[in-house]
Fold this protein.
Amino acid sequence: MPNLINSFYEFGEFRLDPQNRVLRRRQEVIPLTPKAFDVLWLLAGKEGQVVTKDELMRSVWSDSFVEESNLTQTVFMLRKALQESPGERYILTVQGRGYRFAAPVKEIPRGERKDAEELASRQPIGTDAADSASVSAVSRPDSGPLPGKRFPSYAWMWPAATITVLLIAGSWGYLHKPSWPSRTHTAPGRIMLAVLPFKNLTGDPTQEYFSDGLTEEMITRLGNLDPAHLGMIARTSIMHYKDTTTALDQIGRELGVQYVLEGSVRREGAQVRVTAQLVQIKDQSHLWSRQYDRDLSHLLALQGEIAQEIADEIELTLSETKKPADIPRRTSSTQSYEAYDSYLRGRYFWNKRTVDGFRQGIEYFQKAINEDPNFAPAYAGLADTYALISTYGLARPAEYMPKARAAAVRSLALDETEAEAHASLAVIAESYDYDWVTAEKEYRRAIQLNPNYATAHQWYAEYLAFQGRFDEALKESDIALGLDPLSLIIASDRGVILYFSRHYDQAIEQFHAVQELDPNFPRARMVIFAYVEKGQYANAISEIEKWRRTDSNPWSWALEADIEGRAGHMTQARRALARMEEEMNRQQHMDPTVMSTVAYLAVHDYDKALASLESAYSERSNALTALKVDPVYDAVRGEPRFQALMHQVGLAQ
């Protein structure tokens, strides 16, 4: 943070008071979380300078292990608090680097002003008094304190940038465009519950994995209680609220839940104290609260014990019926804390959806397996990672898909109820084997085992879209978003379903809703395809230009060729095609299939376009899964060679 704590910072109608940690607009106190205040203070103190993401993460989150999405979310909340508009921007995104405070900032030493409003109501941000300026917060029980796979035919959207499953709090109002599904798409009488991240009060940042692990265990145990009547919000959405002081009623609105479970972990010597309480959102009443004091010698046994006790309490409090007998509880576990710790780290890096993230994920999953060869979830994590490396076009399918299959099969040999492993087998069957019957069977089995597994619903929605079963696909997408309401990847994939179903206006609106939260979210660049189909070539070119400010990806040139060809500018289209081929030679790790096909179709070279697709079939590329529904192939849809491919991949009528 800047050292000038004895100064005010004035910009526009705002005054920032670092000493009392208050932001005011005229006389009004603007509530901010502690982390949001720190980010604003750092940016305003370096007016006009680029502050990198790494610097912000080191300065503001130096005491905890968080994902980059926390920074993205915090900046979004600040922009909202500052009431930014297109004509009045305070915080600018510097592509690929960080952020810059753009408004003029006037620094005023405290001694020069003694305004009455500064001498009164000096309530620090994050206290109950400060929160009362907006929404009262329920006290937390402190006891005194990355799925998903995406539509594979456009894997280029992901390696182009560092991808984190971005979770944006305070975003529901923006996300709830008409094309965004309502959060009420749950079964009648179904209760929605969120397990908020358990606070680590040990004073030791290295113990974050214990509190995170307890949170994960709670979600797993409670998710198995009564899936027909009790829905659980996915980890990726709830982890956004880690280290925030967001009021519970706001969390309820953002996540669409009726209840939250929250708690904390404190360690003293060889003892650990865990507190937990169940809160009803509508009146913020505490249904029950518990404190557990246990010996620390068996951490994993402690997690399971506390999770089971709380699950039993939740069942008595909320569950309307007994848990169905045909949905078995998850039985796989490990007695090795080191294996469990490595598994959690592997999932953290897997969720980044980057080349480096996948590589680190593989290392940690393999480490977990080495520490406990019978730990089924670690094999499932390994299967997920190998499968996504292939479907994202980051490696040849023949290299990694067999490894993915072997890991998934081993996971299920250890525990047939491992829903994640069934979902991985479905991905492999769909994307590598073109075995649509097996894929659907495995997706359905994964969902049967864990109806609260948002990623399984997301991937099954993709499968249904590839089949042209769009009504069913959108319903599954609704369920996925209901379980993981702050997931930008699930929201973006919904846009792709709308594009495939040729509802281009709704698709554009959906992608715009995502871009309002993160203008650089790679999957949302699929809006270019919808623009092209609508004939809105200027908008499509504008998107490409914004893309190239951070990355001269060969895909951008393939799409430019498509746009110019559709517009009848064949010279420009051929020029873009040549540039695409040049860039492809530099980035040989990328799957060239679809981008080559798009570019060749743009210049009406149908023979090369079809040859590219036939080559993809010989490589068993997942790029062919969208053959039946993607409008980009309409120009050759009636060609005998294309029809033969449709038969080969099992998508013919």
